[in-house]
Amino acid sequence: MERVQQAVTDQHKDTDFEVRSLDTICINESAKQHPWWHNFKYLAVGIVFGIVFVKAEIISWFRIQEMFRLQSFHMYGVIGSAVIVGMAAVWLIKKYNIRTIHGEEIVFHPKKFNKGQIYGGLIFGLGWALTGACPGPLFAQIGTGFMIVLVVLLSAVAGTWTYGFFRDKLPH
């Protein structure tokens, strides 16, 4: 009986590994190799993105607190408009079979829901509410001189590392 149970457990682990391999971040990674200086385009986009965050007051701790206290629509409007733009972009990519700037096909893979997403979302939201920062605005906050946010950034990196370390043992 114990051998059968072990075989079922081993089989489940293999299947679980196969399922988890589908959610890796490199699925749409470009196969082409580029010189290191091609990364400056990402730096430029990041700087523009940070300026937009500052001008739109997305990095404001007070705006984030207003959102979590349901006192202002500002952040909900920003997040909602980002969702709408993202939906429109995905729809356009699928409808017109748009490719990357290097001519490679963009593939969308279906994601399977699991209960760990609820736990992760709650932890993420709690951290966001407590610190007034989520991963995107962290860098803009640091760039504008709020050096205490370095503690939040290091905590986010430590949390990500901890999740990666314990991922196989967590419920998915």
UniProtKB/TrEMBL annotation:
Keywords, in A-Z order: Membrane, Transmembrane, Transmembrane helix
Protein name: YeeE/YedE family protein
Regions crossing the membrane: 42-62, 74-93, 118-140, 146-166
Pfam families, per the entry: DUF6691
Entry keyword Transmembrane helix: yes
Keyword Membrane: yes
Organism of origin: Chitinophaga agri
